[in-house]
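Why do we bother with holo predictions? Because pocket geometry can differ from the apo form. Keep that in mind while you read this record for iron/sulfur cluster.
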Amino acid sequence: MQITFKVYRKDPEKDGKPGRSNYSVELDEEATVLDGLLKIRDEMDDTLAFRASCARGYCGECTMRVNYKACFACTAKVSAFTKKSPEILLDPLRNIPVIKDLVFDWDAFMWNKITAVKPWLEPDESSTNGENLLPDSTMADLRKVMSCYYCGLCDEGCTVLPVDFDFLGPAALTKAYRFVFDPRDKAGRERLKIAEKPKGIWDCVHCFEASEHCPRGIAPTERIISIRDKAFKVGITNEKVARHHTSFAASVKESGWLDEGRLALESEGLTNIKGLMKLLPTAARAMARGKAPIPYLHPKRPGAEQIKKIFEKGEREKK
Amino acid sequence: MFTHDIILIGGGGAGLRAAIAAAEQSSKLSIAVVSKVYPMRSHTVSAEGGTAAVMRDTDSLDLHAKDTIFGADFMADQDAVEVFIKEAPGELIQLEHWGCPWSRDADGRVSVRAFGGMSVDRTCFAADKTGFHMLHALFQTSQKYDNIARYDEFYVTSLLADDGKVRGVAAINIYNGRLEAIAGKAVILCTGGGGRIFPFTTNAAIKTGDGMAMAYRAGVPLKDMEFVQYHPTGLPGTGILITEGSRGEGGWLKNKDGYRYLQDYGLGPPTDTPVHRKMELGPRDILSRCHMQEYAKGRTFEGPYGHYVHLDLRHLGEEVINKKLPFVRELASKYVGIDPVYEPIPVRPVVHYMMGGVHTDMNGSAPLEGLYAAGETACVSINGANRLGSNSLTECLVFGARAGRAAVQYAAAQGAPSSQRLEALARDEQQRLDRQFLRKEGGKEKIAVIREEMQKAMEDGAGIYRKEEDMKRTCQLLRELRERFSNIAIEDRGDVFNTQLTAALELDFMLDVAEAVAHSALNRKESRGSHTRTDFPKRDDENFLKHTLAHRTPDGPRIDYLPVTITRWQPEERKY
Ligand SMILES: Cc1cc2nc3c(=O)[nH]c(=O)nc-3n(C[C@H](O)[C@H](O)[C@H](O)COP(=O)(O)OP(=O)(O)OC[C@H]3O[C@@H](n4cnc5c(N)ncnc54)[C@H](O)[C@@H]3O)c2cc1C
Ligand code: SF4
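The structure, written out:
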């Protein structure tokens, strides 16, 4: 079949302005997008830059957007993208500095962040003589997270990164999970401390885009939630988002609904004078318009007792 | 100019293991890992089936050694094999401590599975993404050491040697096109194999034999290059590998009559559950030849991508397939639209591994001072004429670590290389690149065309079955292609991510490697392991129980030989 690839071009050595080149290529039914790109480079235009290594969907090197969907060029069959029209748009990943054409800057995007979570096992040196005996179920879970390709598709889908490029992002935090939940790792709390630093787990907004994007079904968002849960369990709770969670739950448990004034105060932290001062202007304005209830003087809603029981049941079950 | 004590070229299994071994020797040493792709895109990532070592009481070092030597058709150096087998278990346990998620038995121990040519279960695995998990565990561990510096996406174009010693490397920073001199007291080549000299291969696009060619150009001989392994079960069309682990778990090979044909070639009797070294668990060279003979008898299927047979996993059931071979299921459905739970998988032999490589001793040391090599790019040799599946990942670990340690020892006694001298060598290299590629005008030949013709010549003359006249023609064609290559056209004159330049450099390297393979094959007038000649169908220990050494000369390879080291296992007929 005849396919027209419309490929994003940018040459930093020319004018550096983005544009597109069109290539019309004859491919067979089974061909992948990478086959198309290789053919273009071999036969039509060998100045076109893109990355590829294994060419079999093992390595994550040829990540790009095909008709705006982020995927691997080597596993994307052209036939899947040409049902409606014989045109395929190829672009580099979003939100990342482009170096040339389809090649973008991995370092800034992902590697530096992954290194920041100290992605290596800190083994217990006292047991180094033989193999650790471990259930396969634990290994299976680790194999699942470890099957991460470092492809960056989760970061590409992330809704926080476009707003805050310094957010560690789902790929790095998924790496953190891999070590937090490895029973052989002895770094324990230290690891959680890294993950819970500013720009870490608490900055995730749970939009689940990362999980939607991950081609390995690793569910990065769920992994971030698991690290948060674990942080709570070991008592890492004195952080703004954590306090927000705790206060939210406490309020609903006690009165059946949300005490917004209290939530604001407790999220900032009752001893955080500076933080509390910052709330004052907003609070004053809201009060003037009759919009802010007085914190803690907040009536119970009808049925609050039932709600409290649900909470208590949940707490018992969790124990 | 950058300066380090030890330079690793390659960030695959061997390179990273060597880097860690060197870093562990002393935190004062500075180590560089230079790789043309990010380390975890190295080809080790795609190894599926497993990695072998004696891990159980039911096994023994002698038995693993014997299987390896027998599999190698007695071409392996037996002292090297003994060292390899002895250090293998420690390496796998070490990797466990570095976080590799090995599959486990019910008692929590690391599981072992059957593999071709092995007499007992001794292949450890991490489901069917073993290399992936090993590479990632090594990569993660390597990040722990502050004294390991990485040069990701740097393309090494040549070794810088002076006065009979290696002093560093010249590498292009792919991001900006600058040629950098990287000085080092010792250089370890871990650049992997070169399967891409053939048209149909399981090897990644980046496996172009660069390190072999660089050593060859620096005057180091390439050893046993004629031995190229075909894996019997690749997917037609793409060459994607269906791991031997699938036969280790009990998969069957059937011809178009649904008959388990291996029983006709002395590998029987067929049994329902797998028996070590029999039938589908025979060694790869023999299984690949059986396929070709079935084809000659007209008993294979014909498809759009040529002849194929069936790999049948259906009787294993969905549970076993999901637990032990999930990736096989994924690959088969993704690439040939077949779910192995319900249908057999079409497979055919495919170029997979190079037993030969840079001539080294047991410490990875090559016959050029300061140069070491390990992994697929090296030939120690433990694989001889036919590697047993799952020995090569272990080889990357054992000999990577040994080379790392040996290089440290060597470097300790060396003074810092002269930076002036190195800058001058790098300038020479820049001039060569300018002359040959970047500033050359009027080139006519296309990279893709020459590459394709080279690959075809290799398949025609140096495939599973070889004979004199075909090989001669291939050698001739390769010479002509070398000539035509000098007239190559490079249109991309940009500095940033000039992938056309890297493609040209890779082809340049491949042409050297291909010639070494073809000439080594032409000169070996016998059949042994993977090297099968229709004109010399028998093994000839009297004349050819010796390693081939190919030396580079302007007129093509010069071949000489080196005795094979035999310790405790006298050559005997190789029967399964
Ligand atoms: C599909 C497949 C499955 C396999 N399965 C198994 C298995 O189950 N068990 C087993 O034991 N073996 C298996 N093998 C073989 C085994 O995977 C390889 O032999 C082994 O991984 C090679 O590792 P390496 O470190 O030597 O090289 P590689 O992993 O190939 O790494 C080479 C490195 O060198 C770098 N490099 C190369 N040239 C240059 C240059 N010019 N400049 C800079 N850097 C350069 C690359 O960037 C890369 O980092 C398999 C092989 C394949 C192809
Ligand atoms: S978690 Fe998934 S999407 Fe993110 S880098 Fe890993 S494989 Fe890619």
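Chain A is about 45% helix and 10% strand.
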